[in-house]
Amino acid sequence: MPGPTPDSSRDVRPTLEAVAALAGVSRATASRVVNGGAGVRKPLVEQVRKAVDELGYVPNHAARTLVTRRNGAVAVIIDEPEFRIFSDPFFSQQVRGISRELNVYDAQLVLLLVEGSGDFDRVARYLAGGHVDGVLAFSLHMDDELPSIIRRFRVPTVYGGRPGRPGAASELAVPYVDCDNRGGAAEAVRHLVSLGRRRIAHIAGPGDQTSALDRIDGYRDVLPEGDPALLAEGDFTVEGGARAMTQLLERHPDLDAVFAANDLMASGALRVLRERGRRVPEEVALVGFDDMVSIAETTEPPLTTVRQDIEGMGRLMVRMLMRRLNGEDEGDEVESVITPTRLVHRASA
After folding, report:
1. In which element (H, E) is residue 239 found?
2. Which residue among 36, 245, 246, 298 sits deepest, i.e. has the most Cβ atoms within 10 Å of its Cβ?
3. CA-CA distance, 94 to 73, in Å (whole number)?
4. Full-model pTM
């Protein structure tokens, strides 16, 4: 005796034809809507999306790729060692902003890390394979190979931070998102001057990154005749800030203020000042840059710092890239965005 007939309706995925029927449109129209194509009137788009939600339809990725000629993936390339990326909250904030905005566009984030020269070949092979629709690249260094690799494969790209030296051709040829590094640094130093501080030191970032150079320029805008011995280079890490602070105290034990080019270096400087018995802010006022709340609000004393909207900059990079991918800025000149900064007052200065 035959067994019970299986319920053939179980586990049957809704089809595009079912979506089209429910929405009252042709299959071609339904396909254009669910696969991201253009040229469909807004009322019909809404009908199709409503049918998709009602049926629980999941678009076929291969079909979407055929319609849009896109993979639905964006590469995020960070030219920094792994230990920095996972220890510096700057990167987690920027990637969080990128990831959240990519979700809005139903796009996948692919993270590519560059730690050495050998990694450039790996990145080149990946981009050559056409696996991603575009690139978001940040934390570039001078003479970086990444821009030339990206240009070679003509991958639409937006940079985080101004690439190249000021006025260089590479700066003018590609869109980027950066904060007002120079203006923010100048505001920090003006604040220290307003407190009556006269021997103001600067712990700079690496000399091969434009953000560090811009912040040095901001420092010098306010103190053009400053003593060169009051400037020491760090590496945007806690340890680098501590080393630079030690050097500065050896050169200028009478310094009465420090502007550090990021909050991590400021926290390292604060540790050394405490070890040397220098009271902050009574004897030495201290200002950082970034406003990493996880750092700035937990140091003792809490850190006065320059705020940049790191997560918002990541979101803006995605929006700029998507406009390029959608052809919304074709024929226009490449426009980059400089976002404002502001000084956040806490107890260290």
Report:
1. helix 238-251
2. 245
3. 17
4. 0.77
